[in-house]
Amino acid sequence: MPVKSLGRGGTMPEQSASLGPRSIILVDFEAIVQDYYSGVKQVDEDFAPAGIQSRSPRKPAENVCELVRRLNSEYVIVISDRDERYRKECETWLQLNDIHSDGLLMRPRGDCSGNANVKMRLYDEQLKGKQPLVWLVIESDFRCVSMWQSEGLTCLYAGRSSNA
Known about the structure:
Strand order of the largest sheet: 3-2-1-4-5
Structural class: alpha/beta
CATH topology: Rossmann fold
Helix content: 10-25%
Shape: globular
Number of strands: 5
Number of domains: 1
CATH class: Alpha Beta
Order of helices and strands: EHEHEHEHE
CATH architecture: 3-Layer(aba) Sandwich
Oligomer: single chain
Strand content: 15-25%
Distance between the termini: 34 Å
Number of helices: 4
CATH superfamily: HAD superfamily/HAD-like
């Protein structure tokens, strides 16, 4: 199933004002990749997020991916601090690794603000207060966990100890 682009005008299906049978799970892109924080240098620099020029995820973090796959009764929105210019690479990676997504939110081109600031702005502009509601976040950056919790969202930390 193709990944819908929320970052370029895509919209979620309408839902009633109450939390209906489907709601949104917001998944950090980096939470579903295994080798991102391994420190292994890789050649593909074009796929690197802002500020990191020599690491590129290759393998899925299967335990997190399996969780996302099993939550197919919910809308899954992937959020990333990767620059919008790498949308095609992210979409391809998700499809190749059998990760269904109803949308992909990405850092606007040229935005150099921090990861938490980017994610909060994307959430505020695209999802906050809108239906369907976000009820769960899966996050790899420990600095963003309290940010999500301060918004009243349940947040599962899926990072590695080297990220803490």
